[in-house]
Specification:
284 residues; alpha/beta; Rossmann fold; N-(1-d-carboxylethyl)-l-norvaline Dehydrogenase, domain 2; 2 domains; binds acetoacetyl-coenzyme A
Length: 284
C-alpha cells in the first residue's frame, strides 16, 4: 500500500518532526493532540523548523506554505479515519498507548497500518491489543527528526511482509535510511547507545574526568557530534533513565543499570536541556 495520507498521534518533539518530514515528502498529514494548547505548540514547532530552513536558503516561502497546507491539526481521533498509516508518538506509557490503539482500531479504516515511534516499549504488546497485529510495526525516528537520517523499522513476529514493505517505503519516501530490526527492547540504536551514555555517567560519578573532558574526549577522539553527557542532556535524563530501566528489566545485565548519579539527578528534576538543567546549565 502506498502511503498518501498519514495520521500522527502526538505533536511533541518527535510527532512534530514526523509531521514535518512527511509533509515535506508530499504526504497529507493529520496530526492529533489531546488539547488545543499542545496542538498549537506542536504546529508552531513545525513552522519554526520550516522558517529555519527558509532562512538557510533550503526552502522558499512558497515551498514552506505548500508544506504547511498539507498539514491539518485536530484533537479528534475520528479525523484520522481515512489515513493509510497511523504513526503514534505519544507519551511513553504502555497502558496509555494501548488505550489509544484500541480507540484507533475502532475508528481508522481496516486496511490502515499502525506504527509506534516508541523507543523501548513492546510493539508486540501494542499490536496484540488491536485486531490488526499483522498491520502493526515500529517506526522509530531520531531527534531532531528533520536532521537525523535514520529510521528503525521494527518487525514483530506478527508483522506481515506487506506491512513491513509499506513502512520501509514510507521511511525512504520521507528521506530516511531504513534499518530493519526485530521487536526487542531498545531495538538497535538504544541497545547500543544507552549503555554508552550510562558508562559516561559512571565515569563522571567515579571522578575519572570532568564532564567537559569526557565530552571532549568522545567528540574529538571519536568524531561524535556531541559528547555523551551533552547527548544525555539532549535526549533527556528522565528518558535515558526510563529506557535504561526497561533494558535492565529485560536483560538483567549490569551494563543497563542506571548509575546512582543519574537517578539522583532525575529525582532532583535535572532532566537536561528541556528543564534548563542537566549535566550542563541551559538556564541562560
Ligand atoms: N530541526 C531542524 N533542523 C535542525 C535542528 C532541528 N531541531 N537542529 C539542528 N538542525 C540543523 C541545522 O539547521 C543545521 O543545518 P545545516 O547544516 O543545513 O546548516 C544542522 O542541523 C546542524 O545544526 P547546528 O549547526 O545548529 O548544530 P550542530 O552542528 O551542533 O548540530 C545536531 C546539531 C544535529 C543536533 C548534532 O549535534 C547532532 O547530530 N547531535 C547528535 C544527535 C543524536 O544523536 N540524536 C539521536 C538521539 S537518540 C534518539 O533520538 C532516540 C531515542 O530513542 C532516545
Amino acid at each position: 500500500m502506498e502511503i498518501k495520507k498519514i495520521g500522527i498521534c502526538g505533536c511533541g518533539l518527535m510527532g512534530s518532526g514526523i509531521t514535518e518530514v512527511s509533509a515535506k515528502a508530499g504526504i497529507s498529514v493529520v496530526v492529533r493532540e489531546v488539547n488545543d494548547d499542545f496542538l498549537s505548540e506542536g504546529l508552531a514547532r513545525v513552522e519554526q523548523s520550516l522558517a529555519r530552513a527558509v532562512s538557510k536558503g533550503k526552502l522558499d516561502e512558497a515551498g514552506k506554505k505548500a508544506v504547511l497546507d498539507r498539514i491539518t491539526g485536530t484533537t479528534k481521533v475520528e479525523n484520522l479515519a481515512d489515513c493509510d498509516l497511523i504513526c503514534e508518538a505519544v507519551i511513553e506509557n504502555l497502558p496509555e498507548k494501548i488505550k489509544l490503539y484500541r480507540q484507533l482500531d475502532e475508528t481508522v479504516k481496516k486496511e490502515a497500518i499502525f506504527a509506534s515511534n516508541t523507543s523501548s516499549l513492546s510493539i508486540t504488546e501494542m499490536a496484540a491489543a488491536t485486531r490488526r497485529p499483522g498491520q502493526f510495526c515500529g517506526l522509530h525516528f531520531f531527534n531532531p527528526v528533520p536532521v537525523m537520517k535514520l529510521v528503525e523499522v521494527v518487525k514483530t513476529v506478527a508483522t506481515s511482509e506487506a506491512t513491513f514493505a509499506a513502512a520501509k517505503a514510507f521511511g525512504e519516501k520521507v528521506g530516511k535510511v531504513v534499518v530493519s530490526c526485530k521487536d526487542t527492547p531498545g531495538f538497535v540504536v538504544n541497545r547500543l547507545l544507552v549503555p554508552y551514555l550510562l558508562d559516561a555517567i559512571r565515569a563522571l560519578q567515579d571522578g575519572v574526568a570532568t564532564k567537559e573532558d569526557i565530552d571532549n574526549a568522545m567528540k574529538l577522539g571519536c568524531g561524535y557530534p556531541m559528547g555523551p553527557l551533552e547527548l544525555t542532556d539532549f535526549v533527556g535524563l528522565d528518558t535515558t533513565y526510563y529506557i535504561a530501566e526497561i533494558l535492565f528489566d529485560e536483560f538483567k545485565d549490569h551494563h543497563y543499570a542506571a548509575p546512582p548519579l543519574l537517578k539522583a539527578m532525575v529525582k532532583a528534576g535535572y532532566y537536561g536541556r528541556k528543564a534548563g538543567r542537566g549535566f550542563y546549565d541551559y538556564s541562560k
